[in-house]
Amino acid sequence: MGYRVVVAGATGNVGREMLNILAEREFPIDELAVLASARSQGDEIDFGETGKKLKVQNIEHFDPTGWDIALFAIGSEGSKLYAPKFAAAGCTVIDNASLYRMDPDVPLIVPEVNPEAIDGYTKRNIIANPNCSTAQMVVALKPLHDAAKIKRVVVATYQSVSGAGKAGMDELFEQSRNIFVGDQAEPKKFTKQIAFNVIPHIDSFLDDGSTKEEWKMVVETKKILDPKIKVTATCVRVPVFVGHSEAINIEFEDEISAAKAKSILREAPGVMLVDKHEDGGYVTPIECVGEYATYISRVREDSTVDNGLSLWCVSDNLRKGAALNAVQIAELLGRRHLKKAA
Ligand SMILES: NC(=O)C1=CN([C@@H]2O[C@H](COP(=O)(O)OP(=O)(O)OC[C@H]3O[C@@H](n4cnc5c(N)ncnc54)[C@H](OP(=O)(O)O)[C@@H]3O)[C@@H](O)[C@H]2O)C=CC1
Ligand SMILES: N[C@@H](CC(=O)OP(=O)(O)O)C(=O)O
């Protein structure tokens, strides 16, 4: 026996990946409903590569009673409107939006890092999926923290345009094409030209001069991994379609060599270490597209601090940063709590 599963935001970047991953991983599904806004009602979408077509329903008119799990990727405004309704109807919401992540009654889960925290989901019947940049970073940090206790992390991100939804990808494509044919490259979704450029600004500005994306990396890392870890982040949008990269500098309590860190990362869940000191002996975002792993390269000692390491971390932001992590949470929920499937 399987689950009755809902994917909300199924026409978007993340929703489509959710469907691909549910199909790829053969998630036990008895019935699947795909939802989006009124704009997409009646559209047909593929259930991964199964050959099955699914008709999109308007979330406004959908009755969640009797459904087991809803994977939400409709943004915070949509989640605010619909997540409490689904949760109250008994359908557990796994939400990709930032809205509930810091709610103390909502577990914020990366299954490789804090699976046991999922047990608190019954308070609101909502489980939050972290920010894409946080998710891949904590997968890399967790095994190193277990080995040598992390004190402080300094991270700079290189975030692809798919993190800004379909509109972000369209803007990079159109601007690149326009520039090639000598036309204007007007910014719409982004604040400045993104084609052939980088923008040190993701999400809104806060009073202290940081951005909300940077703040999310700080507070979410604390909630998922350890409140004692200090994090400072600079989040940058780059002209890459899919795949977020991060340059991470870590200061540890205890001594840890690069060789030791590499041997730990080689065995760590969700991590793929690709680190050869030669041309191309590292992973770039294009190579991580469509993959599950968080790739780590360029692990080296930082001699400017006691017990310091630097590394390069790349992952598919639509997968580990969103859809894959959400499906892994659903699998974890099934194993630990719902226990419906054989
Ligand atoms: N965990 C993470 O780090 C990440 C989280 N996300 C979250 O997932 C959300 C979706 O991202 P993404 O797929 O990239 O965005 P897209 O713009 O590609 O897609 C948005 C989807 O949400 C639907 N939608 C938007 N508003 C509503 C609404 N009020 N009611 C019902 N459906 C709605 C759209 O439906 P329609 O096609 O009908 O307009 C579409 O299916 C983000 O807003 C963010 O909250 C995204 C990336 C990473
Ligand atoms: N902000 C991320 C994607 C996203 O939607 O994040 P969040 O769910 O934390 O708002 C990016 O632009 O790459």
Tell me the name of the CATH class of the largest domain: Alpha Beta
CATH architecture of the largest domain: 2-Layer Sandwich
**Backbone structural class:** alpha/beta
Low-confidence stretches: none
**Rg of Cα set:** 20 Å
The tally of domains stands at 2
Count, helices:
8
Indicate the proportion of strand residues.
15-25%
What distance lies between the first and last C-alpha atoms, to the nearest angstrom? 6 Å
Secondary-structure element order, as H and E? EHEEEEHEEHEHHEEHEHEEH
Q: Provide the helix percentage.
A: 25-40%
Strand order of the largest sheet: 3-4-2-1-5-6-7
Shape: globular
Distinct compounds present: NADPH dihydro-nicotinamide-adenine-dinucleotide phosphate, aspartyl phosphate
Most strands sheet: 7 strands, mixed
- The CATH superfamily of the largest domain turns out to be Dihydrodipicolinate Reductase, domain 2
InterPro entries: Asp_semialdehyde_DH (IPR012080), Asp_semialdehyde_DH_beta (IPR005986), NAD(P)-bd_dom_sf (IPR036291), Semialdehyde_DH_NAD-bd (IPR000534), Semialdhyde_DH_dimer_dom (IPR012280)
Family: Belongs to the aspartate-semialdehyde dehydrogenase family.
Subunit structure: Homodimer.
Keywords: Amino-acid biosynthesis, Diaminopimelate biosynthesis, Lysine biosynthesis, Methionine biosynthesis, NADP, Oxidoreductase, Threonine biosynthesis
